[in-house]
Give the backbone structure.
Amino acid sequence: MKVPTKKPIRAVEYIRMSTDLQRYSKFNQQQRIAEYALLHGISIIRTYKDEGKSGLKIKTREALQTLLDVVTSGRADFELILVYDISRWGRFQDSDESAYYEFICRAAGVQVIYCAERFENDGSPVSNIMKGLKRIMAAEYSRELSEKVFRGKHRLATLGFHVGSPSAYGLRRVMVDAHGKVRSEMQYGERKAFQSDKVILMPSTEEEIQVVRQVFKWFVEDKLFYKHIADRLTAMGVAAPPPNFQWTKIIIKTMISNVNYCGTTLFNKTSAKLSNPKINNPKNEWVVKENALPAIIDKKLFSAAQLRIKNNPKLNEKAEMIKTLADIYAIHGRISATLIKTIPNAPSHETLRKYFGTVNNAYNAAGFNPFLEKNLIERKKRITAKIMNEYITRLVRDLRDFGLSVRRYYKSSIFVGRHLQIAVIPTLSTRLHPKERVHIHHQVQACLVINIYSRDPEGEFYYVHQENMVPQSFYLNDNKGVFDADRWRCSWEELPELISSTSAKWWKTLSNNEYQFAFEAIQEIVRHKN
């Protein structure tokens, strides 16, 4: 009689790697999770990774957000979430937030397992007490580390060393050793290699110093505004600083207000500890060090520039911001963050909040009602959802007529056979942009991108598939040529044959993986017996 084999429990692993400790490297986490899975007969079907992400806030952790979305929407095809330990799940400053994310997974029938912890997450009183303590310890570690880092920076700033941000135009960062001997000049984006080394500011090339002095003279003596100075430097062909290498009024405004040009360093004017919003600190908390570096701007000239800023209301730019937003509204019929970013000198959302209180107030001042725009967006979403539903229904019918086993999975994906999952994603451009970005809410083996507003009467379809999983975010066209839109484009009639071929390849790959998993499990059992 054939003895039925017990199927392995399906699970996904969640990996988060920040920069706090080496033992939490991606490979160490995966190795420990793999050992736990092998010991308990668990099959890991998918990996969610947040690399180089802080555990303080969930908003920057796309992988965890995607994982929670899959679980709470009922699309989870697994029973367990394997995590290295509680700190990798998150160092949330409110321990209840960490518990909440675990609770919503458990409520959806998915258990979170902490593989490296010395207790089982079984809901027992002891387990709950240990989890609570561990969550508080994880949060406290971040608070203590933040305080230590701040104290260290504060001490360096009082000694006149440069802390934090890149150097301004006309200045350069120089790395010195513990005895003050110069090691090397640091380029933009570089960090010091040795903990004992320090960073100081020094004047840059004579050409850049002359540009800085000319900017202050234009501002104080010729009464030019930020934008006019930026335009003049651009017309003269003066090389702009990184990272954008473009002169803007924001860069000029920052230069005019920078005390480093007077030979003074300033620290702790603003702060944003533990990923909280930036705040302006009171003046008595600032760390000011006079004569920390050679001055390239006379203090009298610098003070005259600050006086002009204070006495001239136009330099507060509020009226100019409204005009910029009104111009965007006149051209496009709406205002959005995406459109604002296309204008070189347009204010950021942070600047708008600073001057208007909220972004909506700024939009209203420019004559645009964001609530009306929201209604139009919702209407467009409903129309898009209806069109996509018709496309997916048609695709399922055509694939079944081709002889494939197909079932619809949630709203925007289908399963072909048992293993091939295909996401069906719309793009809304009447003409495909060279940098058209595609976002997928969960990991899949293939993706069908449909341009539902294409001007092509035959339709515009892109069937993206690879040997491995399709990335959750990618460009249809990128500079490296990995995703070439022309390579993936196909007609609707070609889809059944393409999908059938992909399904056959994935079935063969998965079968080989299952045999390999069984072989490794038998080897492990024999090794333990010996």
Q: What stands out?
A: The CA atoms of residues 38 and 520 lie 9 Å apart. The chain is about 45% helix and 20% strand.
